[in-house]
Amino acid sequence: MFDSLSTRIQDVFTSLRGEVRLTPELVESALREIRMALLEADVNFKVVKAFVDRVRDKAMDQTVLKSLTPGQQVTKIVRDELLALFGDAEGGLRKQAPTPRVVLLLGLQGSGKTTTSGKLGMWLKRQGRHPIMVSTDVRRPAAIQQLSVVAQQADVKVHAPETMDPVARAKGALAEAKAKGFDTVIVDTAGRLHIDDELMDELQAIKDAVEPSDLLYVADAMTGQDAIKSAGEFHRRVGVTGVVLTKLDGDARGGAALSVVSVVGVPIAFVGSGERLEDLELFHPDRIVSRMLGMGDVLTLIERAEQAVDKDEAEELEARLRKNEFTLDDFRKQLKTLKRMGPLENILGMIPGMGQIKELAQQKPDEKQMGRVEAIICSMTADERRNDKIINGSRRKRIAAGSGTSVEEVNRLLKQFTEMKKMLQMIGQGGMPSLKGMKGMSQSPQLPQGGGGGFAMPGGRKRKKGGPWGLIKTR
Ligand SMILES: Nc1nc2c(ncn2[C@@H]2O[C@H](COP(=O)(O)OP(=O)(O)OP(=O)(O)O)[C@@H](O)[C@H]2O)c(=O)[nH]1
Ligand SMILES: [Mg+2]
After folding, report:
1. Residues with beta carbon < 5 A to ion ligand 2?
2. Ligand 1 centre and the CA of 195: distance in Å?
3. Within this chain, do residues 150 and 288 fall inside the same structural domain, yes or no?
4. What span, in angstroms and rounded, lies between the C-alpha atoms of 117 and 157?
5. pLDDT tens digits, residue range 131-176?
6. Which ligand is nearest to the CA of 118?
7. Separation of 110 CA from ligand 1 center, angstroms?
8. Which of 6, 254, 366, 380 is such that its CA lies 20 to 30 A from the CA of 297?
9. What is the pTM of this model?
């Protein structure tokens, strides 16, 4: 997400920080670069102009130019102004709503409404809520079925009446929610290639019938300014309370995200970053900006980890580590946990400083390799997994054949495992970096010096020594 924009802005900062003294000319040339970067990322040109003007006003201030760290000061100004582009909304659903709350999802065809309905259902369940969903898309033959499938995956109840009248379907869902105690009704609507009166009338009728407190416009971030234009049109005609930006995992250049609030005037509520139902995040402007500026997003990373990690399993693992009982089975479980956190590439991007390193090393994290490691471990007997010491030459041959790998690969894995075990043992003696301990991490996000301007995140506390992230090299 925002890869090229992020790289370009970071380059500007790197060159600024190399300067001992900032002159108005240097600031001006940095601003030109930033302007180009934003325009190329498809940010609305009016938004870009206003943005650059505000940064210039602040950066040209004598106290900034003459300060000891002018480069960092400018970085901070850009960061603050990027944040301002998102307004001060914290994302999510509206704070106040009657029960049951009705959430209406609307937008153009294929933007991700139905998928987002499922994601939202799952997200709400995780918040301890009881959602029910209904499809009002009676035009596309398989649309109702599609929502049912998604709902089943999310383990959310669907209202499935006989009627093919969109308004009656939405009303029916609200009635069922009231009767059975569901607290949120998610209403999926039909999409259109283009905005037309018929669709707008239908949406208006549904809106009048069920009075949604949240009208979320689902926008495909990859379509850039087009998405923004139609968001404005939907807002004008039906009223929108928030935007869900989907497909931010693709090669969206970020322009839609950066312009939507200024142009349409409604906050971003959620972002979708993948096809899986887990891939919905509350929109946190500060985290997105941090990621954009290469400062990583430790908080999101921790949340992902917390969702993926089974608490009991983590505690059990910790106890075993203390007793030096870490086995290949545990190792495999850890790999699974890592996989549950989502594509490795996304995860790396959230680690401060990693964005750049990834680029430098020109190597993508190898998920296939992870699959091979799993295959190797799966080809071992239970005894072997419990005690790797017994895996001799002939066993290694058998395992390699069984997993479709080579003896060298098996050897390498066993060597890595032994090393990891040693390392864990060492850390264990000084306090295990437990997965449980990740909770505490959210108190202490750490930013690498220089990696992204060297100023602290809100509340900027220092990292505790020996915290789990000591394991991850960021430089
Ligand atoms: N990569 C990626 N794909 C997504 C995301 N959200 C939705 N999709 C994909 O986009 C396609 C369209 O999604 P739908 O949810 O069917 O879109 P829709 O708005 O309901 O479409 P209509 O009902 O035809 O208007 C599907 O293939 C989804 O898997 C996302 O965040 N990332
Ligand atoms: Mg749909």
Report:
1. 113-114
2. 18
3. yes
4. 12
5. 999 999 998 889 999 999 999 999 999 999 999 999 999 999 999 9
6. 1
7. 5
8. 366
9. 0.68
